[in-house]
Design a protein that fits this description.
Elements lengths: L1 H6 L2 E5 L8 E2 L2 E4 L3 E5 L4 E7 L3 E8 L2 E8 L9 E2 L8 E3 L2 E3 L2 E7 L5 E6 L5 H7 L3 E2 L11 E6 L2
Parallel strand pairs: 3-14
Antiparallel strand pairs: 1-14, 2-5, 3-4, 4-13, 5-6, 6-7, 7-12, 8-9, 9-11, 10-11, 11-12
């Protein structure tokens, strides 16, 4: 019974009149753990969701990044650049994981996001990642025009 209920877990996207495939900026996107103030021309496409996190594709003038956000995470592996603060999450150095490159950010608590790219990150992509803040399970970020939430239905 419990495993059947777990199989029913999915992400429900609430974005005004928008469909999941066209969450476009400008607007504040709050998804799983990342908070991104989308600029005009940037978009988010939800890929999948689960109990503690989910993934989406973030596209803009910087290119395209796959993002996996976790609202109940532990410290990411690898060397972190600077400590996490209320104003800015800690960021990991770029590292190779499997066949892709990865940068993680962590809020020092339970919020984390992993950004991946098939090619090494560009300066524009790292700059875009630096605009991302995090929340974690139990917190409700403010001013979200676009958001994902979880539903047991």
């Amino acid at each position: 019974m419990r495993s059947s209920m777990m199989a029913l877990v999915g992400a429900l996207v609430l974005a005004g009149q928008s469909e999941a495939a066209d969450l476009t900026g400008p607007g504040r996107f709050c998804g799983y753990a990342p908070i991104i103030d989308l600029l005009p021309g940037e978009s988010v496409t939800v890929l999948e969701g689960g109990i503690h996190g989910g993934s989406f594709l973030w596209e803009g003038a910087f290119g395209s990044l796959k993002v996996h956000g976790i609202g109940w995470a532990s410290r990411p592996k690898g060397r972190l650049i600077g400590p996490a603060s209320n104003a800015k999450p800690a960021r990991s150095k770029q590292r190779r994981v499997g066949g892709s490159y990865e940068i993680a950010i962590w809020n020092g608590g339970h919020g984390a996001a992993y950004f991946s790219s098939t090619t090494p990150f560009t300066a524009r992509q790292v700059e875009a990642i630096s605009r991302v803040s995090l929340f974690e399970e139990g917190q409700t970020p403010s001013d979200c025009q676009l958001r994902t939430m979880f539903s047991w239905e």
